[in-house]
Every structure is written in structure tokens, then in C-alpha cells.
Amino acid sequence: MNITLSIDEQIVERARKVLAATGKTVNQAIxxxxxxxxxxxxxxxxxxxxxRRTAGxxxxxxxxxxxxxxxxxxxxxxxx
Length: 80
Hints:
- By secondary structure, the protein is mostly helical.
- The protein has helices at residues 9-20, 26-37, 42-54, 67-72, 74-79.
- It has a domain at 9-54.
- It starts with 8 loop residues before the first helix and ends with a helix.
């Protein structure tokens, strides 16, 4: 199917430059995005299945989430 999009020229030019580094075209990126949004993404389905299978199987070594630490930013600083 062919469609026509109205996109600001500056946005398209910036996207072209970024995508050129990955070897993709704007057309390819839009197709991939629409496939992802439309649910035709096998990788996404595999990742969701993996997360369902492995949810709750991790080992925190006794560490528990603490809301105050998260708000103070201590969790993120400790991991860096």
C-alpha cells in the first residue's frame, strides 16, 4: 500500500542524517515503526514472552526497593 505523509522538511532531513549512520532510509524506518505499532513485530512478541517467563525469578540478594531512596536518587547513583 502506498500512503502520503506530510512531515516537516527539517525533521525529514535530520532523520535522514541519523538513519544514514545505521544504513536505513526514512521509508524503512517508517515501515518498521508502523509494523511495530501494528503488532507485526516478532521480536517484540518474543521479548514479552521472555519477560513473562522470567518475571519474579531474579535474585536481589536481600535488597528491597525503597521509595525514599528512589526519590533521593540514591538507587541510580549506587548502580553507576
